Amino acid sequence: MALEGIGKSFGGVPVLQDVDLALHTGHMLALAGENGAGKSTLMKVLSGVHQADAGVIHLRGHEVRFATPRQAMDAGIAIIHQELNLVPTLSAGENIFLGREPLTAWGSIDWRRLFREAAALLEELEQPIDPRTSVSRLSIGQQQMVEIARALSLDAEIIVMDEPTDALTDVETAVLERVVASLRAAGKSLVLITHRLAEIFRMCDDVAVLRDGRLVHQGPTAESNEDRLIQQMVGRELADRYPYEPPRAGEVVLEVENLVAPGVQDISFSARAGEVLGFGGLMGAGRTEMCRALCGDVPRHTGRVRVHGREVRFTSPQQGLKAGLVYVPEDRKQSGLVLDHSVADNMSLTALPAFCGPLGLIRHARERSAVTHYIDAFRIKLSDPDQPAQTLSGGNQQKVSLAKALMPEPEIVILDEPTRGVDVGAKREIYLLINRLKREGKCVLLISSEMPELIGLSDRILVLANGLVSGEFQRDDATQEKIMTAAAHVATPMET
Amino acid sequence: MTAITMNRSAMRMLIDNKAFLALMLLVAVSAAMSDNFLTPDNLLNVLRQTSINAIIAMGVTFVILTAGIDLSVGAVLALSGAFAASMTASGLAPWLSVPGSIAAGAAMGMVSGLFVAFGRIQAFVVTLVAMTVVRGAALVYTDGRPISIGGGDVADAFWQLGGGYWMGIPIPIYLMFFVFVLCWSVLHHTRFGRHVYAVGGNEQVARLSGINVNRIKVSVYAIAGACAALAGVVLTARLGSAQPNAGMTYELDAIAAVVIGGTSLMGGRGRIFGTLVGALVIGVLNNALNILGVSSYFQMIAKGAVILLAVLIDSRSQSSS
Questions:
Q1: Options 1.10.3470, 1.10.530, 1.20.5, 3.30.1490; which CATH number does B37-316 get?
Q2: pLDDT, mean of residues A350-358
Q3: In chain B, which residues touch A (CB < 8 A)?
Q4: In the predicted model, what is the mean pLDDT of residues A346-367?
Q5: Chain A residue with minimum CA distance to B190
Q6: Is the Cβ–Cβ distance between A29 and A206 less than 8 Å?
Q7: What is the structure's pLDDT at A426?
């Protein structure tokens, strides 16, 4: 498979220019680049979602042209899109065979065969999911696995995965790596788009780097390294990846004692002003659940929470915000931003009371100046604060989500996976922001599944497993191995 | 900002508004087909006839912006109108009876809102029930017979709200514009308005942003109820009596006006100006078909076709942008 001179523009803006890409049988190619570099567009051209304005695609020596995704599918190209494309109300099995349901001789759906084959595919992915389970009841990681199972069911020759591991836990990622290895052995070609550089070197044979719609590098991974790759992606040299600053820890502002809530069995900790407290653990370990209980989104059952020594019992995020605690959720598309509302409206939503006069009348000038201030301070790239939030790149959306949470000047900031789906350049800016919060004396709780990031930014790390604290490490003695061990720890009730 | 740029941005907004273009087109066609359409008397007539639907529809806009729906507004109109009539008949002055029936309408809406917000029942179901129950209550209250507003000074004063003129323009038209300005200000210039949009856009985001989602939901149904009650007052005043079956199917005209105005039934997107225009589209259409002598049976079909067309144009321009 080879792409030659591919070009594509949207509304006169070139997104891809003269891109050549070669894909070999049994090889896995990594496609790297910042958000907006054109990776997803290139893959959409390959899979028939978009049609190229210029250039040709050769498949096994023949020139091909895909007018629809269906044609690409029939030619043996399967793509796992970045956005989950599942029907939440249907079962896992139905989703896997959606549009290609096996039929009985009577023309009705052969449910037994459908679920049997779906179960076999999920088993191959080491997923103990009943194919009859409704997708809405699966975790995001499991949904991603269903999506992967669907691609496998196509028996495609070329499989494109657009950030498949973003939503996966380390355990699930390891499974995926095993599956990928067996696919390669079977002579399939794979393309992996990922932000996680370590994966590129661990899983892929070749790497291609896109920057601003152009191919800037293609070659074997063995001849490259992470720093060089970042340099190629960003087009400039980055200083150290995790710009850590030592804390100037102040007084204890948050104390949590024996917190019990849905998904949280028993968690105790305290955090200081000017400190970044990291939370590690596998998906489902109770980190997000803990955040939601802390901010008042879900009721906690028992336990004590003190803010500035005063006991609090939030029954809604509104009360949490009033006490100076804000939660920036991991899923910015579903709980972080109103995507089709403007950037400006999103940004000022939380802090709106501060811009209002009598009768709740909004002081528009004051609101606008705050919005402009944050756009500049957070270096959010946009053409107009009134453009819908969904038109921004992932990194910029995340910055809007952060600005929205920080505008009311909270004292305790809970960041849940703040760099998920964000490119290297924007990641670094978010790290710098976290450092700034620390300098300003805020107490930051950082949840991250990216271990280097967690270790690189936190002053102290708590590891959760099964809703319990299974390990606590100071920055200096935290290592990936220690955190992994603690995270995988099958917790027994802690002795008091 | 100069007057010219102000005008230009206002022009842009009007052109961007598909419902407004549809209205202009409809007016042009009507004027071309009948000499009687474009007369001051007839235009005032259209505006007056539109006012009741417009007032209801602007209230319903709040509900639809939160991704809800209110089917009970027609029934609320009937019961509040009946309250207003009997209060007037018993000699209560309009400055007491009108706020009284508006408060009653708001309370009825609020009850629906409480079930939607705290009972977590779908708005369609809650307000379908409310439609039946309130309509029943109106029949019980009126004993199935019209309630006259009676005679005398108090009744005359009340009658002015529906049948009176000020400076040659019917009072209901002033009321319609007053409600429009009020709703517009609330939606675009207050925290509450912004919160309404946020709740409809994404409830989870709204809650995590510290918005009391339940309070917003209860409030929008109360607003819809209050607007329906005001429309009931206007209708009762104009007829001089309250009919127990007044406002039947008005909820459908109101929803149609909101939808023609470009407000999304999925919530979070829409404008009150669009609703006003949507109501005018329906009003002009009714009027033009009447002038042209089209039978009322065909009128319903024509109305349906126009609503479908308007929404189709709107959805196509949405997806292409």
A1: 1.10.3470
A2: 88
A3: 189-192, 194-195, 197-198, 201-202, 204-212, 268-269
A4: 90
A5: A361
A6: yes
A7: 83
